[in-house]
Amino acid sequence: MRMHDHPTIHYPDYVWPEGKRCAVVISLDLDAESPFLWISRGQDINHLGEIEQRRYGPRQGLKRITDLLAEYGIQGSFYVPGVVAETYPELLPHLVAGGHEIAHHGYYHERIEALPPAQAEDYLGQAQDLFRAQTGLTGLGHRAPSWEMTPDFLSAMERRGISYDSSLMGFDHPYHVGNLVQVPVQWMVDDALYFRYTNSARDKTHPANPGAVLESWIEEFEGMREYGGLFMLTIHDWISGRPQRLRLLRKLIEHMRRDPTVWWARADEVAAWHASSINSERFRVPAHSINTHFPI
Question: What is the mean predicted confidence (pLDDT) over 109-115?
Answer without folding.
Answer: 93
